[in-house]
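Instructor's aside before we start: the two examples that follow are unrelated to each other. I chose them only because their records fit on one page, so don't look for a connection. First example below.
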Amino acid sequence: HPPPVATSKEEQDRLLQDQPDQPQNPKVLRIAIIGAPNAGKSTLSNQLLGRKVFPVSQKVHTTRCKARGVVTYEDTQLIILDTPGLTSPFKAKRHKLDEAMLTDPWDCMKHADLVLVLVDVSDHWTRNCLSKEVLKCLSQFPQIPSVLVLNKVDLLKKKFLLLELVTELTEGIVNGKKLEARSAFKHNSSSSVKSPLQITQASPPESRAHEPRCLQETDQAQEGSSLDNSDDRRASESGLVTEEAQGPKRYGPRDLKNMKGWPCFQEIFMLAALHGEEVDTLKRYLLMQAKPGAWEFHSGVLTSQSPQEICDNIIREKILEYLPLEVPYGVIQVTEMWEEGPSGELLIMQNLLVPRKSHMMMLIGRGGKVISRIAQEAGQDLMNVFLCDVHLKLKVEVKS
């Protein structure tokens, strides 16, 4: 069971400053999760952690800054870097986002041992190609192993589309081998998830077998890539293509212009992250990728965030959920009380400042229904984070 988050800032700071309780042979893996806004990065982070510490909402830019989650299992520590969605300066300006929203995902990449690229396959506008920002990010750090994670597979009515998406998002190459994918869904089309994708990877011609995997020309590879649906073909065991010393190729802006996918993914996983299906498979894979190294955190730490930050984020998540369009982005949160009650319960009072009276009416709702629903749902989430009773009171005022 994952540990609860400390309810006081002092206790959380002490935990974060504590020397990690190193096991005999510690292993560690730093994981950056990147993707377009709203791909489900925070939901996946929460699933991997086993407790909800990152805010989640249908609206874009719920995650405002990078935060770390810590999974400690036996002798291994996974450090999950939950990042804001990769966005452009133009969109950042439109949503009044901090400068950090543009730089944080890039900073995370500098510290990562592995990158998970999350794609929401239920979004038919964005699923067919990786965004320019994601491709740019991958091309800047080609030495970091990357894994493609197709999320929200359960929402995809036509499962056969997954094979087309995989081919497009990988440029027909996974782990340096050309893809010959066969449907994992043919026997039971209603089956929601299979992970990782069953793929037969055709071995590259002898002369190219030892080239670095990112150097193999993607257009040549795609000519030979075929999606194989025959029932009797088995996914063959394929050996890794060995990397030579010169390392993977750097793709320049001109290459990226013509690319829809990334030809250097090592693995593909398919998830329904909201329901936690197949997340355990991914978690086991990540634990296996960990390398010998000292732990960064004490095993009692679940996240690097302070209790107040978690509280602010969870309340903001609910405001984003219940208020229309751009309205929630203008709300300022001020914590007026944070103390322990007589029976060990946590008493929190927060003031929500809005720019206009009309916004105040929306946030309160008819008969106070909206604000009480936000308080109730946020309070429930906070109980699950801190594992204690939480009494949350919210007030709304027009900021003077």
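Example two begins here.
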Amino acid sequence: MTSNIVEFPLLNPWQHFTIYGTHNRYIVVAMNKSRSKCRILKIDRMDQKELNIIEDQHEYSHGELRQLLGTIEVSNSRVGGFSKTIHCHGIIGFIKFLEGYYMIVITRRSQVARIGYHRIYKIEETAMLSITNEDIRKVHPDETKYLRALQNLDLTNGFYFSYTYDLTHTLQYNLMEQNNVNSDSLNENFCWGTRYQPTSKYVWNEYLHESIRSQVHPRWLLFIVHGVILQYNLNVFCRSIYLTLICRRSQKFSGTRFLKRGGNCKGFVANEVETEHILHDASLSSLGKSHFTSYVQLRGSVPAFWSQDPKQVPKPPIAS
């Protein structure tokens, strides 16, 4: 092995997704921001019990992709057809109930903040696609109940993501990782696309990644955080300054305050939130040349075992 291989941090290069459907499979086409490079996932629809995904290892140009899709359309014209199912901005993950797997995707987003040249988005709308083909689906009477419970979760309320910035880590950590790659090392042989591990307790969709984590490259995994992200542009002595607030909620011991308090046997506490205040010069977009300052606070419940019987609620006497 050579000693001049460098880890270059890269999160998710794919920002535009189009899902096509055939009788036997879903074809997920992912494109980069400029739509000049494409990758493909093939998801089997003929197995109700397991999720089978094949990642095409070839990177297609736009012309090659059109030619490939044309070939697939011709080959499926007599066996169920070939059609565009949905356009989306990312795959949140996969979940299984009693009738097979479902794929949850982001269909609408809005930009809420920028940190240097990194854009941060808020989820505005989602959709859920059933993977299993209707011809082989075995109907279960309780499936609707579980689907309704999942649909009651509002994914448009406080869920954020970024393709190029790791929202699960603090600014200090992200800057340290970036500074490990200096400009001189980029002229040598280096490993492009190494992805650093996120802080798992702030990855809200960690469970939704379990079924695909071993089947696809990590560049397909989009990390979603739950909390609040706000940004304001301030004018300080005729200088534009961005004030950014990032609040990350932990998903390890989450729940309402009445049901979750104290800590659990794994060391996680209830209502844990990491709050980060960031100030940076808005006149420069480069993280390496601009000026930043960050202040991080961590709060949570008292790390002690706590329980409460909901049936033993005292009833105060009614006084006239």
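The two ends are 85 Å apart (CA to CA).
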